[in-house]
Amino acid sequence: MPRSLSRTAIVMLFCLGCSENAATVVQPPPPPPPDIYPVNATQLTKLAAFDLVGDTRRDLITVARGDGSIRILPGEARGAFADALAFTAGGDPDQAAAGDVNGDGIADLLVINHLENALDVRLGLGGGRFAAAVTYPLRNHGNRLVVADLNGDAFADVVAAHDGSGAPLYVTAFVGSATGTLQQAWELGTPYFTTQAIGAGDFDGDGKTDVAIALGDNRVSVLVFHGMGTGAFAEPVALPTVSADPDISDGTTGLAVGDLNGDGRDDIVVACFMFSNRLVVRLSTGSGFTDPVSIALPSPVAVALGDLNGDGRLDAAAANIEEGTVSLLYANGDGSFQEPVAVPMGTHPSSLAVADFDGNGFADIAVTDLSDNAIRVRLMGLR
Question: N or C: which end of the chain has fewer CB within 10 A?
Fold first, then answer.
């Protein structure tokens, strides 16, 4: 793929995956250049970090839309990664995640398939090996999934978002069991369209897992589903778009969840590309969410949270697909951020994961790139 891509080409490729009282924050020096890991697959998207191999190190997992496979880069010592492992994943995988759905202490691999309208579960066998897939049909095109314990039984559960072909968004919750079989616990149809991202957290501080789904709908930016602690959810709370034109969406493409101000409730950050090019921060309160705060960025398509500078606060990192950079936003601790700092990260970074890969207490950054189909990793906190 050529290093110079038109804006139209970028959009088409990406859509395949498609205070004044703040404490002073000292920004660390720029991190060293990223390490580059070829994956030998095309159209990499939906990068995430999990311990899939079972050695306590974070592994990287991405979907290769070009050949319909899942690629896993096993984590090694000092933040390095081994050569990618490949797993076939049906006709059109859209996102992969990991969780222990049967409580045996071994991570299982979960893949949501778009055209096959299905959720596939491969039980972990240890050492990065997995059993054959068990398929759970969905009502519509599988788009996004998130893994969390919805009912407090220590088995990983799954929430799947599925929509498309002119039909609106359905959300389905499955709960895990000792046998590894998923049981559908809840499902809801909504009047909204175009799932872009999903995340889990506790937005109201009640100790129960909630779910947020970011949409490319001009009527709503995020749907927040408050968990009942059983695998079921209340009717969603719709967070409106910030676009000045009611007929145009925010261009929402990414979502991150975490407690930005230390109040015990998780907050929401969404990335908006093309139409508005900004991050939108929504802080949770005891009665809902504060008014959104926008942060202008060049071309953010993905956002993630983590402690990038080791001060105990959640910072933000956003991938700018048109500039070949990642914007680092260091947290003030009150829900606001310092001015963004741009660091080079390939040519067209398209998805992003943040986790401590080398165990030094600093969250590190990994991105996929549309230009050379490689994964780049920046280890933070190095001098």
Answer: C
What are the tokens at 73? 């880069």
pLDDT in tens, 253-276: 999 999 999 999 999 999 999 888
pLDDT at 171: 98
> Tokens standing for 87?
């797993």
| Class of residue 359 by CB neighbours under 10 A (exposed 0-12, middle 13-18, buried 19+) | middle
- pTM of the shown model: 0.92
Summarised one tens digit per residue, pLDDT across range 27-42 is 666 667 899 999 989 9
Spatial distance between the Cα atoms of 36 and 298, rounded to a whole number of angstroms: 23
pLDDT at 29: 61
Mean pLDDT of 302-314: 97
15 phi and psi angles, rounded to 5 deg:
-70, -10
- 3-class secondary structure for 313-338? CCEEEEEECCCCEEEEECECCCCCEC
Q: Do 199 and 255 form a contact (C-beta atoms < 8 A)?
A: yes
d(C-alpha 62, C-alpha 45), whole Å: 6
